[in-house]
Amino acid sequence: MPRLAKRQAVVTLSPVGRAVLGDYVHRVAVASGGTRFAACSASGQVAVWEVASLKPVCELKGHQQSALGLSWHPTRQELATGGQDGLVRIWNTDTGEERAVLSLGTKGAWVEHLAWSPDGQFLAASAGKILRIWSIDPGSPPQLAAEVPAYMTTISGLSWMPRGGGVVASAYGGAWLWKIGKEKPVRSFPYDGALLTIAVSPSGEYLASGNLDGSVHLFRTDSDQNWHMSGYPVKVTSVRFDYNGLNLFTASGPSLVAWNMKKFEGTGGRLFKGHLGWIQEIACHPSRSIMATVGEDGLLCLWSPQTTKPLLSQEVNKAGGLSCVAWGSTDNNVWLVTGASDGVVSLFSVHGLEDQA
């Protein structure tokens, strides 16, 4: 008797609601615990909403020029923002009050990269060629913990190592690992070209860079072994490991390419087809090997490493392209937040991922 084919599980999105900021949405981010999310825009607006209801929590007014970056504290309802004004601002989102304003001491440079350490003790930020790290305690003013000697070129990315391993900063010529209390980098990862983005695997074993020359470079952090993956159509603008580090997803123009990290040998990249325009951001699910991508084509796509076809491909913004995306989860609910070039911020509930292999 013939067997019935197993029905493919369907992944769907349920729109929760949308809000509108005054200009291009640079970043969206979901807070620890998944109950709030924030967005920042080119108009300088920074706003916080409740997940599940899209109820406004607060609007954080301080950046007089474009707000470029967001980073939530790992355990507290504190949000760090950076902008074209060259300042880092730390906010208490329970009250909407500005807790601190931090300067990187460089005139005219934009704060484009900022990130909390995994334990929440330190905040790293870069503006132009300058990298500074502050110690942030709940009951006292922030203290400058480290200032890295000026890079030769603009810093293009920041990523913390796990378990107090320091912070990695990338630029033209490679990446460098810095630790608090050290005046020189404890490790360098040289590359003959410009690194545009950097990512550290969850275990800290690998460091991946997306490069201007249309390539991805992979470094081992415990040895001098490295691999070079070239042949991308244009520059590689986004690299992301999945939650357990078993897969590396990379974006170059409209192309999404994934690499299996198990017994990695620099071969076997798989092309995932779905976007018609440039991919603007990749975001990894917090506890599954599922990736979300958004593009200038207005599409939101979800991907599994098991198939090169999208689990979901949905046009989210017909009026303009999508610029950023972030995951969130609360109890048994999974959420996606997107930002768009026309200022629209959208919130979706995601269904069907639990049925995926």
Helix content: under 10%
Spell the H/E element sequence. EEEEEEEEEEEEEEEEEEEEEEEEEEEEEE
Low-confidence stretches: none
If you average the pLDDT, what whole number results? 93
Radius of gyration: 20 Å
Instruction: Estimate what percentage of residues fall within beta strands.
Output: over 45%
SSE-based structural type: mainly beta
Distance between the termini: 26 Å
Q: What would you call the shape?
A: globular
Number of strands: 30
How do the strands of the widest beta sheet line up side by side? Answer: 14-15-16-17-18-19
The largest pleated sheet is described as: 6 strands, antiparallel
Put simply, the count of helices is: 0
Description:
The protein has 357 residues and is mostly beta strands. 0% of the residues lie in helices and 55% in strands. Strand 10 and strand 11 (122-127) form a beta hairpin. The mean pLDDT is 93.
Could you list some keywords that capture this structure?
357 residues; mainly beta; six-stranded antiparallel sheet
In short:
It is built from no helices and 30 strands.
Task: Describe the protein's topology.
Elements: E1 12-20, E2 25-30, E3 36-41, E4 46-50, E5 56-59, E6 67-72, E7 78-83, E8 87-92, E9 97-103, E10 111-116, E11 122-127, E12 130-135, E13 143-148, E14 157-160, E15 167-178, E16 187-200, E17 206-211, E18 215-220, E19 226-229, E20 238-241, E21 247-252, E22 255-260, E23 270-272, E24 279-284, E25 291-295, E26 299-304, E27 307-315, E28 322-330, E29 333-340, E30 344-351
Antiparallel strand pairs: 1-30, 2-3, 3-4, 4-5, 6-7, 7-8, 8-9, 10-11, 11-12, 12-13, 14-15, 15-16, 16-17, 17-18, 18-19, 20-21, 21-22, 22-23, 24-25, 25-26, 26-27, 28-29, 29-30
